[in-house]
């Protein structure tokens, strides 16, 4: 079974790694172009490219997978199967029809829920207590293909998008290994998705990252976890961006508020000390534990509060 693998971020690396470890014939790897990263904006290869080159695999990085040149390059490898995992582009019909065994995708949600480019982040931000991975046949729509197999993975309060990316990438790689023999011998099932149950997880925008303090403590807690360690949640302090990387679960941090605190507007700092920075929310309060002021590195909220002498009554927005 000759395989072309398509993936881009760290999420995809365990699947490619296991394919090689299990002796599958990976003809080549397709990934996104190198992108500028960091303050110096240096061109950086995606994790899948770095791993593929380390293993001596041919790498293709088309700006658009729909281009005739990209399609011809993939066709030249004569794949029996194309495996994708967080590749980042929708495959055109010309590519979907190339392999005799079809194209399958390792998707980071329990389809048909959270179709789209940010299923892991949004499942946390929406307060889900579990998610998972689905292996699916690819179709021309957005994550609409028939399902082959799935596995459920719980989400705990201690989890962030970072920890869930790691858990789901490993679960997806294992599930892919269980699925490949069935694809090879023709016994893999095809379970159509129920479109009436579909929800969507579009890529995150700047507005998704902003903390709106009138929301509930739980919603703000989940939002912060779902944005860590990627973009990070943010608010404003004295007109400058103030990032929030961590906070305590509301059940642990919220206490009975006095009359003065209850009268405070959402976003008001109620306390700032060794316990962190307690902020008024729409239904109580939330303790921030890890913050990052503009132009500075992230640090414990207690250290920031001590150094900046953050006074109760300060309003975040």
TrEMBL record:
It catalyses: L-methionyl-tRNA(fMet) + (6R)-10-formyltetrahydrofolate = N-formyl-L-methionyl-tRNA(fMet) + (6S)-5,6,7,8-tetrahydrofolate + H(+). GO terms for cellular component: cytosol. InterPro entries: Fmt, Formyl_trans_C, Formyl_transf_N, Formyl_transf_N_sf, Formyl_transferase-like_C_sf, GART_AS, Met-tRNA-FMT_C, Met-tRNA-FMT_N. Keywords: Protein biosynthesis, Transferase. Its EC number is 2.1.2.9. (6S)-5,6,7,8-tetrahydrofolate binds at residues 109-112. Pfam families: Formyl_trans_C, Formyl_trans_N. One of its GO terms (molecular function) is methionyl-tRNA formyltransferase activity. HAMAP family: Formyl_trans. Belongs to the Fmt family. This is Methionyl-tRNA formyltransferase. The gene is fmt.
């Amino acid at each position: 079974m000759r395989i072309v693998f398509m993936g881009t971020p760290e999420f995809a690396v365990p699947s490619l790694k296991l394919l090689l470890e299990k002796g599958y014939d990976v003809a080549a790897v397709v990934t996104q172009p190198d992108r500028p990263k960091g303050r110096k904006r240096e061109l950086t290869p995606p994790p899948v490219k770095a791993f593929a080159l380390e293993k001596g695999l041919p790498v293709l990085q088309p700006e658009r997978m729909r281009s005739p040149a990209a399609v011809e390059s993939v066709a030249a490898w004569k794949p029996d199967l194309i495996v994708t995992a967080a590749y980042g582009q929708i495959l055109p019909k010309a590519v979907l029809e190339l392999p005799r065994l079809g194209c399958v995708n390792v998707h980071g949600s329990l389809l048909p829920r959270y179709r789209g480019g940010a299923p892991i982040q949004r499942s946390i931000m929406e307060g889900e207590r579990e998610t998972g991975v689905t292996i699916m046949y690819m179709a021309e729509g957005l994550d609409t293909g028939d399902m082959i197999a799935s596995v459920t993975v719980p989400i705990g309060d201690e989890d962030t998008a970072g920890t869930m990316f790691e858990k789901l990438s490993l679960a997806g790689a294992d599930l892919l290994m269980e699925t490949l023999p069935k694809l090879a011998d023709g016994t893999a099932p095809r379970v159509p998705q129920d479109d009436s149950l579909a929800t969507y997880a579009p890529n995150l925008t700047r507005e998704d990252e902003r903390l709106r303090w009138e929301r509930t403590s739980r919603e703000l807690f989940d939002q912060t976890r779902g944005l860590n360690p990627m973009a990070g949640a943010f608010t404003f302090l004295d007109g400058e961006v103030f990032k929030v990387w961590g906070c305590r679960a509301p059940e642990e941090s919220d206490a009975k508020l006095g009359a003065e605190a209850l009268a405070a507007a959402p976003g008001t700092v109620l306390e700032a000390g060794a316990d962190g920075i307690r902020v008024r929310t729409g239904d109580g309060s939330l303790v921030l534990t890890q913050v990052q002021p503009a132009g500075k590195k992230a640090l414990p909220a207690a250290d920031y509060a001590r150094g900046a002498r953050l006074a109760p009554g300060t309003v975040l927005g």
